[in-house]
User: Fold this.
Amino acid sequence: MKMTARGSIAVLMTCMAAAGAASPAVADAVPVGVPLDAVETTLGVEAPRLATAVPVPMVGAPEAPRQHSGDMLPTPLLPVVPVSTDLGRTLVTSPVPNLLGTEKTDGEGSLEAPATTLLARTPGAVVGSPLTMPDGSNHGLPNLTKPKLGLTTPELIGAPAALLGLGTPR
Assistant:
């Protein structure tokens, strides 16, 4: 084996090891600070401050279809796929001038949404078979039935909340 081939294999193995080591460190949400400095410059007023996090959805394993006795097709035929994400903490603060009519009482208003977890499930498809199980009274042949088609409802589970505050100097 030539030296260049050995070097290429060594570089490839190093890259694979780095990618494997970095994959467990995936974040649930990416923090983002929104720069509003241009508002202060152009309008001449104090701008609010905004800090939030962009959620990163994580797709889970599809739920396995279940076979019921007497049915030829499993239920649901199209599996339900769970998707979960963490909504990061969001904080918006803004100055409130002359809160009680004097400059001494300048305050700050805030709106905070704490971090929460959301879980969503995609709809699944339920399909009924156009044939029944083999029937002994019909010489072992299946009978025809009306085909059935349906969707399971999607789900969204979570408990987002928000806190509104107003602070004045003491």
